[in-house]
């Protein structure tokens, strides 16, 4: 009997997103993976799990897609922090790392611990760090340390020796350590090994829930004094496709009260992106889409704010409309 492929789409999307750094490219890669699998369905002999078989295909689809292509980055990976007076330059959307909706990469019917694993694996900082790895090294790391394949399975998938796979993973971990993201792999391993009978894994502490609520209240009231009190001393703010990024609460506050003053009167609506706290931001009381905002939290402070400005591409993917009813808060398609 031919295997049922559709239930595997979320995990394949997460894997391809980690490989490619792009929601658009990941969706294309998953479609190509399922097409190849469908064409080869009669040859599937069941010796490997369907998931393993599909991830093998997806990995090679991604490696093909990465051939000759530049990695995707965040503005904070491109150079030193700027100032509020710097010229604003933009780059093509294909240059930047994109966010991914949780609903596309995390299966709703997965075990809570598996959902927690997937959330960790699609965090912006982690996926950004992965883009610094050569494609085959990236694949080896993800297959072994996120999907928990053996070195022998990875070697067969990538046409490498076991020794070469182990060496590639070791070098990849060293690169992630330089970017302070090797701990993510340890958290993924810890979550994956948790007993299924334990309580549901929560993504935020009580203090962080309060922090997020304070962020929304301060931003919508445009109380910048209160807003910057929520930020870590080394907080970063970036706005792809603009290549400028800022660091520190003072610079963020100056931006918000200066060139960013147009955000006064915005409203936020929660979305689920990259396994993190995120919002759709609308200016003018909901009349105009402005950004998909992803927050990095560190304890009881915000350590990063990424405002993705390509709402025309992203809002439909996140299933949020391009306009809100200003007075009643009702969602209305424009």
Give an account of the 3D structure.
The model is unreliable at 196-200 and 328-334 (pLDDT under 50). α7 (135-145) crosses α9. The protein is globular, with a radius of gyration of 21 Å. The protein has helices at residues 9-20, 23-39, 50-66, 102-105, 112-121, 124-130, 135-145, 151-158, 162-178, 182-192, 206-221, 224-228, 249-257, 311-317, and strands at residues 231-239, 242-247, 267-273, 276-283, 288-298, 301-308. By secondary structure, the chain is of the alpha+beta class. It has a six-stranded mixed β-sheet. Helices cover 45% and strands 15% of the residues.
Topology (SSEs and partners):
Blueprint (H helix, E strand, L loop, with lengths): L8 H12 L2 H17 L10 H17 L35 H4 L6 H10 L2 H7 L4 H11 L5 H8 L3 H17 L3 H11 L13 H16 L2 H5 L2 E9 L2 E6 L1 H9 L9 E7 L2 E8 L4 E11 L2 E8 L2 H7 L17
Parallel strand pairs: 1-6
Antiparallel strand pairs: 1-2, 3-4, 4-5, 5-6
Helix pairs in contact: 1-2, 1-3, 2-3, 5-10, 7-8, 7-9, 8-9
